[in-house]
Amino acid sequence: MSERHTIRQQIRQARRQLSQTQQQAAATSIVQRVAHTPHLAAAGKVALYLANDGELNPQSLIDWYWANGTQVYLPVLHPFSSGHLLFLRYDPNTSMVENRFGIAEPKLDIRLLAFKNELDIIYTPLVAFDASGNRIGMGGGFYDRTLAAWRQGLGPRPVGLAHDCQQLPAIPVDSWDIPLPELITPKQHWRW
């Protein structure tokens, strides 16, 4: 078993053990951190995600952005380009479907599509991170492919969202991994 696989198992287990009260407190803290960070609070178009498997739940942040007039987008598995994501506009009335991983996503409608370079921020879920901005995702590489343009100075700013229990002293890094320039947990806000 690889080190990354072991990390995924351990951290996913840790975040699934968080109580509903801990999850809600984390969500509230994230909204407060974003609201007090000018470049995040002022974003006009942001991509978020719907929580799965104990991930930090950004629904309160989605609601906050909606209340402030920000357009919110969710990731959708690309139907023709395996391993890639599209981003579709999301609001309370968006028609949703379940993807092959059992995660709800907006029903594909080209009229709701935003190209990555139209987004200001892509909030990324993750399994584990370290104090250098390295992250481990679920293993499919979807966000690494999506954020590859950021590495070249193009595209929206990636911002990781995680529980504090997801931090490790160091994580193994592969050549295709895209480190995050910014990450928020309930207790800390990192910028690299």
Structural class: alpha/beta
Q: SSE order in H/E notation?
A: HHHEHEEEEEEEEHEEE
Query: Unreliable stretches, pLDDT < 50, 5 or more residues?
Result: none
- Average pLDDT: 94
The percent range for helix content is 25-40%
Q: Tell me the count of domains.
A: 1
Q: Name the assembly state.
A: single chain
CATH architecture name:
3-Layer(aba) Sandwich
Looking at CATH, which topology would you report?
A: Rossmann fold
Q: Main sheet?
A: 8 strands, mixed
How much of the sequence lies in strands comes to 15-25%
Question: Total helix count?
Answer: 5
Q: What's the CATH H-level homologous superfamily?
A: NagB/RpiA/CoA transferase-like
Q: Tally of extended strands?
A: 12
CATH hierarchy, class:
Alpha Beta
N- to C-terminal distance? 31 Å
Query: In which order are the strands of the major sheet placed?
Result: 6-3-2-1-7-10-11-12
Organism: Oceanisphaera marina
EC number: 6.3.3.2
Cofactor: Mg(2+)
Family: Belongs to the 5-formyltetrahydrofolate cyclo-ligase family.
